[in-house]
Amino acid sequence: MARILMVSSAGGHLAQILSVARELGDEHECILCVTRFPAVRDATIDDVARVYYAPMLLGYQQPFGVALSMVVGLWTFLRIFLKERPDALISTGAEVAVPAFLVNWLLFRRPSLYLESVTRVSAPSLTGRLVSHLATRLFVQWPQMTDAYGPGRAEYHGRVL
């Protein structure tokens, strides 16, 4: 049974990654790391084996907060990778994906998939642009988005939601 580390922020990104977890079913052990957010409850994430929470420090409005969250995120994902030893990494974003893909790319080189948000119809997200260089594969949910990332970098296989 493959062990899949699934990384997501709260909200729509979480809904999309949980949809992927449901599709993977019992053939895979899905481990979720999600940003700690008041709306995220353990009861809403029954489709995964274990849940880790990534900190959000100081919020999005302060550039220092984003930088600090990235540094803490690197440490968080190093610990998760060492403890769980995932066979693959999947993320739907947002900012929490960057340290996960960086730790994977620098130290573990597991197959990794970034699934761009269904809300991205014509332009890549900042997270997508950053992790597209670190991910093994990049999936988009609109056919025209394959061109937005440049030739051969993104794949379209339909929508998750």
Short note summarizing the structure:
The protein has helices at 12-24, 63-84, 97-108, 126-131, 145-148; strands at 2-8, 28-35, 50-54, 88-93, 112-115, 137-140, 155-156.
**What's the total count of β strands?**
7
pLDDT < 50 runs, ≥5 residues: none
Share in helix: 25-40%
Write down the CATH topology.
Rossmann fold
> What is the correct CATH architecture?
3-Layer(aba) Sandwich
Largest sheet, if any? Answer: 7 strands, parallel
Radius of gyration from the alpha-carbon trace, in angstroms: 15 Å
How would you explain this protein's 3D organization?
The protein has one domain (2-156): Rossmann fold (3-Layer(aba) Sandwich). Helix content is 35%, strand content 22%. It has helices at 12-24, 63-84, 97-108, 126-131, 145-148, and strands spanning 2-8, 28-35, 50-54, 88-93, 112-115, 137-140, 155-156. Helix 2 (63-84) crosses helix 3 (97-108).
Secondary structure topology:
Blueprint: E1 2-8, H1 12-24, E2 28-35, E3 50-54, H2 63-84, E4 88-93, H3 97-108, E5 112-115, H4 126-131, E6 137-140, H5 145-148, E7 155-156
Parallel strand pairs: 1-2, 1-4, 2-3, 4-5, 5-6, 6-7
Helix pairs in contact: 2-3
What tags apply to this protein structure?
single chain; 161 residues; alpha/beta; Rossmann fold; seven-stranded parallel β-sheet; 5 helices
